[in-house]
Amino acid sequence: MLEVVQAMVFYENMLAINNVSLAVPRERIVGIFGSNSAGKSTLMYAISGIILDIKRKEEMAGGERITSLGEIRYCGQGITTLKACQRARLGIILCPERRRIFPESSVLENLKIGGFLADRVQSRGTMDYVFGLFPKLREIKRRPGGFLSGGEQQMLAIGRALMAQPKILLLDEPLMGLSPLIQTMLMEAVRDIKVNRGVSILITEQYARPVLPIVDYGYILEHGSIVLEGGRSELMDNPDVSSAYFGL
């Protein structure tokens, strides 16, 4: 469904992504695991098209030069040159690192903002699904986003992304700074999204242990390069990987 072929991203003279190729099949959960500065967010920006916006803004401001190479395909169609908004209309939706909700808007307003690509029927149905997936959000739907806990903000960020009707959901470090109990609950929700909404999911995380039980396939990213890939059993059976990324 989604293919990344030999992607490379340079920030000035620094190589952030180095010859990365990966695939996200239809209705599968794929994990990308790596330490801080491994290139996970840059890869998500490249897939979502946001890297093109960042590049343009840097050029206008006279800042660092950004170069992106390689090919991205969606359902067999090359989308490398498409803007982020065009990719979003195709169903490639990013839920960014650190949530980035609108703090002065209520939970309900954040969700409605996320539904700008949906028609009325889709919006109503998806909001019902989000409130069923995260019942806490229904209870606090009038509360401003800035007054939510970290876990509530992450629920809202995922819910807002779902409102955009994703076919491929990109989750960039959704578990950062959250308690183990909230992490487990969120990963159960991600599994539900795949099963009941038919959404393909690409998820990045530094520590893989909470994510491992739900992934179908995983990649290890180090210094911008994929150094290992395989199914969850294959990765768990590798002692170096389990020690470095799974906390075992």
Structure description:
The chain is an alpha/beta fold. It is 40% helix and 26% strand. The strands form two sheets. A six-stranded mixed beta sheet has the order 6-7-8-3-9-10, sandwiched between helices. Helix 4 packs parallel to helix 7 (150-163). The mean pLDDT is 93.
Key phrases:
248 residues, four-stranded antiparallel β-sheet, 10 helices, 10 strands, 40% helix
Please outline the major beta sheet. Answer: 6 strands, mixed
**Secondary-structure-derived class:** alpha/beta
- Oligomerization state: single chain
* Radius of gyration from the alpha-carbon trace, in angstroms: 18 Å
The unreliable regions are none
N-to-C span: 33 Å
Q: Level of helix content?
A: 25-40%
Shape: globular
Percentage of residues in strands: 25-35%
Strand element count: 10
Q: Can you give the mean pLDDT?
A: 93
Helix-strand pattern, N to C?
EEEHHEEHEHHHHEHEEEHH
Strand order of the largest sheet: 6-7-8-3-9-10
Number of helices: 10
